[in-house]
Design a protein that fits this description.
It contains 21 helices and 25 strands. It has about 750 residues and is α/β, with parallel strands linked by helices. Helix 2 crosses helix 14, helix 7 packs antiparallel against helix 16 and helix 18 packs across helix 21. Bound molecules: beta-D-glucopyranose (2 copies).
Length: about 750
């Protein structure tokens, strides 16, 4: 391999002055307007664009993965290789670089990251004619998850269970701080695909099956991520990614126009409206059209109707996929033309795919398959992003500060988020919370003492923390031990655990699934493994209290374990998850999480969601028949909705009097639904229109005001072909919360 033999490794300890680009930088005259920090962004962009060659513009539209410049410049990773940096950043003039899952610097410390990103940045700036900085992207989807020692927040599905936009925003802010400290300025988060099918390997990356809950939590996350102005968020994966055929990742989706518009699009729209700087395209096809080839999706809808002004980036190698997977064309140039003309501004490129893309797009312009205008448009958007992020003025980060900023940062926030996400589903006889004065408590099950399991995929590596790698965190066993000390006995062998439970006061059994990501994490039978079901059943047979804790990215069909008398869903709670679980089990915190998704009885009942439309069906389970429904979640106190009033027309105001009628303080989550007793177009029996989370002291009651735009109730009109426009259908609506309801008449 030519690259390998020519490769010379360069160290990461590049010495850098942390400062902007001097106006006198070689090759750019003092009159260069684009280098003037006082000029407006549009003025800087148009000045720079005028100076650029076609090759430089196509380069801006190119985002190679950093592995293209590490080690053997294929997949080895490792130290940066100068000859490959030259190829990617100078010859091909790439304007952006990403670290895909697990594409880390060799030692994977925050400082190591900052040195690596600074080194790539310095190479790009020093060697490009116009000194254009790169923008560096990374998947920080639950904290800065690739980095050893960075705090890992709960995965998105757990954030969904918090029903807490404020915590989602705070997580965004914290993540951005960590990301920026290590160099990158672009985060490929949040995911705005909605949960539909537990078989899908990316289920845990979604917030909720409900479009409004997902959209609102993502919107807050984006506000947090972008608050400093130094990091950009990404709405992904646009659109309709999350209900692929038979739950297999990146296969065809068939989403009729009404379902697509009314149910799938709102969450992405909420994120676009929240001001996300960028958007990533769905790798799959929808209704027979790969999303990367959809001019309707990426231009007519996104730009024309929604007014999106930011950068559209492809997903992983998905420009080439139009040739190699979808066969829309027989050449890479053909694929580039389709994608760029549909609206893709930048291509994300693994090794083996970079040169072909650049050459293909250059050929397209020369053969007039792609216009100069389209290239200028995409380049302007990318340059605008770079100016917005301040990259021309402050391209480097101070690597000496990275460790202190990132290592173990914001653990309290991680504990809070994980605690709020804990969803108590069964508590027969109020056995929970457990007394801290118990004698022996057996702690067992495959996820009782496992950081990799509680962190899930996209942690250190793409598929999760690999064997032999230690990433700090508090396991559930450690969390329990921190509360009850040596009364907690970790027993890993299942039959020993059953024996020991006979002589114990209680057993806590932590079951669930192993980490994974994307298609490798698809599961045709998403249920609790048979040996784990047996473990739960055998523990229960001892007659002792048995608390079942599930650590998983999706509701697993429980089989025998459905008989559990105490059941806590912990989701993938992240590095501080053990503290959160222990706080709940021993009553230091009152459970407040609510299911953001439906929990099926059996795997055969997927896809499942509470918005299933009515039908004439009569067979068992053919209607919405979950084990635990959307919004389920118990607490250690009791709550009531005491009054509900509705007013307004364009904006509907809902006032709800809520009360903590029990004896413990807690946070009450209040979902508000709309129902339509009569509708010519089938609508879900319930649609979430608003929600809030209210802290209430024992015995306290309060009145909260919520509101929602009437347009949230819009549905697509027309016959079976859904050919009509979206509108709110006049008639009677019922607004319901906690068993109370009020009428809303739409004229
Ligand atoms: C995933 C994206 C991710 C990208 C970069 C893709 O395979 O679909 O969600 O942002 O890789 O790692
Ligand atoms: C990368 C991921 C990417 C995946 C796509 C992996 O090699 O590390 O970031 O999402 O490939 O299939």
């Amino acid at each position: 391999m030519r690259l390998r033999t020519r490769a010379t490794r360069i160290g990461l300890a590049v010495t850098l002055t942390v400062s902007g680009l001097a106006l006198s930088a070689t090759g750019a005259s003092a009159q260069s307007r684009y280098l003037d920090p006082n000029a407006s962004t549009p003025a800087r962009v148009s000045d720079l664009l005028k100076r650029m060659t076609l090759e430089e513009k196509v380069g801006q539209m190119t985002q190679p993965a950093v592995v293209n410049m590490q080690g053997d410049c294929q997949w080895s990773g490792g130290a940066l290789t100068e000859s490959c940096m030259k190829h990617v950043l100078v010859d091909l003039k790439a304007g952006s670089v990403l670290s895909g899952g697990g594409e880390t610097p060799p030692a994977n410390t925050p400082k190591d990251w900052a040195d690596m990103v600074n080194a790539v940045q310095k190479y790009a700036i020093d060697h490009s004619r116009l000194h254009i900085p790169i923008v560096y992207g990374v998947d920080a989807v639950h904290g800065h998850n690739n980095v050893l020692g960075a705090t890992k927040f709960p995965q998105q599905i757990g954030v969904g269970a918090t029903w807490d936009p404020q915590v989602s925003e705070a997580m965004g802010e914290s993540t951005a701080k960590a990301v920026k400290a290590t160099g990158p300025q672009w985060d490929f988060a949040p995911v705005e695909d909605i949960s539909r099918d537990t078989r899908w390997g990316r289920y845990y990356e979604t917030y909720s099956e409900d479009p409004y809950l997902a959209g609102s939590l993502g919107a807050s996350n984006i506000q947090g991520l972008q608050k400093s102005g130094q990091v950009s968020a990404t709405v992904k994966h646009f659109g309709g990614y999350s209900q692929p055929f038979a739950g297999h990742d990146r296969t065809e989706a068939h989403l009729d126009p009404r379902y697509f518009q009314d149910t799938f699009l709102p969450a992405y729209k909420a994120a676009v409206d929240a001001g996300s700087d960028t958007l990533m395209v769905n790798s799959g096809s929808v209704n027979g059209i790969p999303a990367h080839a959809s001019h309707y999706l990426l231009t007519d809808l996104l730009r024309g109707q929604w007014g999106f002004k930011g950068v559209v980036v492809s997903d992983w190698d998905d420009v080439k996929s139009l040739q190699t997977a979808y066969h829309l064309t027989d050449s890479y140039a053909g694929a580039a033309a389709i994608a760029v003309n549909a609206g893709v501004d930048m291509a994300m490129l693994p090794p083996g795919s970079v040169d072909g893309y650049v050459q293909g797009l250059l050929d397209d312009v020369k053969s007039h398959k792609v216009s100069q205008r389209r290239i200028d448009e995409a380049t302007s958007r990318i340059l605008t992003l770079k100016f917005k992020l301040g990259l021309f003025d402050h391209p480097y980060v101070d690597a000496s500060k990275a460790d202190a900023t990132v290592l173990g940062a914001d653990k309290d926030l991680a504990v809070k988020a994980a605690t709020e996400s804990q969803t108590l589903l069964k508590n027969d006889g109020n056995v929970l919370p457990l007394s801290t004065g118990l004698g022996k408590v057996v702690v067992t099950g495959p996820s009782a003492d496992s950081i990799p399991n509680q962190d899930g995929g996209w942690t250190i590596q793409w598929q999760g923390i690999p064997a032999g790698v230690n990433d700090p965190g508090v396991t559930i066993y450690q969390g329990i031990k921190n509360v009850i000390g040596d009364h907690a006995k970790l027993v890993t062998n299942p039959s020993d655990a059953v024996d020991q439970t006979k002589g114990a006061d209680a057993a806590i059994v932590v079951v669930g699934e192993k980490p994974g990501a994307e298609g490798l994490n698809d599961n045709e039978q998403p249920e609790l493994a048979a040996d784990q079901q047996d473990l739960v059943a055998n523990l229960q047979a001892t007659g002792k209290p048995v608390i079942v804790v599930v650590v998983a990215g999706r509701p697993l069909a429980l089989g025998k374990a459905a008989d559990a008398k105490q059941l806590l869903m912990s989701w993938l709670p992240g590095s501080e998850g053990g503290t959160a679980v222990a706080n709940i089990l021993f009553g230091k915190a009152n459970p407040s999480g609510r299911l953001p998704v439906s929990w099926p009885k059996n795997t055969g009942d997927e896809p499942m969601f509470y918005q299933q439309l009515p039908g004439t069906n009569g067979g068992a389970s053919s209607n919405y028949d979950p084990l635990f429904g959307f919004g389920a979640g118990l607490s250690y106190t009791t709550y009531a909705v005491q009054d509900l009033a509705v007013s307004g027309s364009h904006t509907v105001k809902v006032s709800v009097k809520v009360a903590n009628t029990g004896s413990k303080d807690g946070d009450m989550v209040v979902p508000v639904f709309a129902q339509q007793p009569v509708s010519q177009i089938l609508v879900p029996p319930n649609r979430l229109v608003a929600y809030t989370r209210v802290p209430l002291k024992a015995g306290q009651s309060t009145t909260v005001s919520l509101s929602f735009p009437l347009s949230r109730l819009a549905v697509t009109q027309g016959d079976i072909n859904g050919s009509g426009t979206q509108a709110v259908i006049p008639g009677l609506y019922k607004i319901v919360a906690g068993g109370k309801s009020a009428d809303l008449t739409v004229h």
